[in-house]
Each structure stands twice: as structure tokens, then as C-alpha cells.
Amino acid sequence: MSDERRTTKRRDAAAVGSFVGGVIEPLCAKRGFATADLIAAWADVVGPRYARSTQPDKLIWPRAAGAEGANRPRGATLVIRVDAGMAIYLQHETAVLIERINGFLGFGAVTTLKIVQAPVAPPVPDRKKSAPSPAAVVKASAAVADIESDGLRDALERLGRGVFGEVERS
């Protein structure tokens, strides 16, 4: 008989977000993206003006250059879907956008943008916070009732409503 102990792996709860990468990465690879980072951070990269009207579609990498293609640019072409009407504005800011994209990626990966007018999927709306319950409002008001300064009392009461409301939701 051996003294081998059975080892069991402990399965801790994992965040759902940790599984999303495994699902999305093959789809991104099919579209030329190494990771989903650029797609996820697209709104931050392009800024609020183009966040809702543009969407990265695919990244086209050049084929390996032979002797005759040695002078061709080595960067990729990023195909961007743009809502009708915004393409002309985006076209004028192509150089700035390429600089932002390469700054995000950390190297000169993109040298050309190809703008395609096509419908853009609407962004996922932010989850709105619900109003605090009446009990949270009463609790916050009671906690700051002794403060003499009106401005400070109002500010602390708003903060208290948010804190007590968040505690109730969690």
C-alpha cells in the first residue's frame, strides 16, 4: 500500500471576464488582430468624437516581401467601418489616428487606414445606477444633520446616499 494522497484541485470561482478572452481571441485572430485589446480600447484610442461612429474591422498584414518587395512598407492596413457622414472627417485625421493606434499598440504596426462606409454596431450602454432607497436617504440625512455649513452638509449627504445605497445593493 502506498501513502499516496489523493490530490484534488481546488476550483475557485472565476470571473466570467476571464473566459471571454478564450472565446474572442480566435475570432480576433481570424480578423488579423493578435489580441482583442485594440477592439476593447477602441473608444479610448479614437476619442469620443469617433467612438460611436467607427469600429475596427480587420487588420491586414502584408505578405512576406521578396527581393522585389523590399521597398514596400512593412506595416499593416487597418480596415475601419465608419458610419456614413463621418468618413470624410476621419479621412482628414488619418495621420493622427494612425499615431494613436500605434501609440496604443506600442510600435508602428499600422501604416495605412482603409475606411469603409458601413453600419457600425452601437456601443453597449453603460449600466445606470439606481436611485438610493428611502432608507439610505434618511440614514444619510441623519448622519450629517449636525453639520452647520450648508454646502458641506449637502455634499456629505449626497456622498452618504451613494455609499449607503451601494452598501444596500451589495
Automatic annotation (TrEMBL):
Pfam family, one: DciA
InterPro entries in alphabetical order: DciA-like, DUF1159
Domain of life of the source: Bacteria
Protein name stated in the entry: DUF721 domain-containing protein
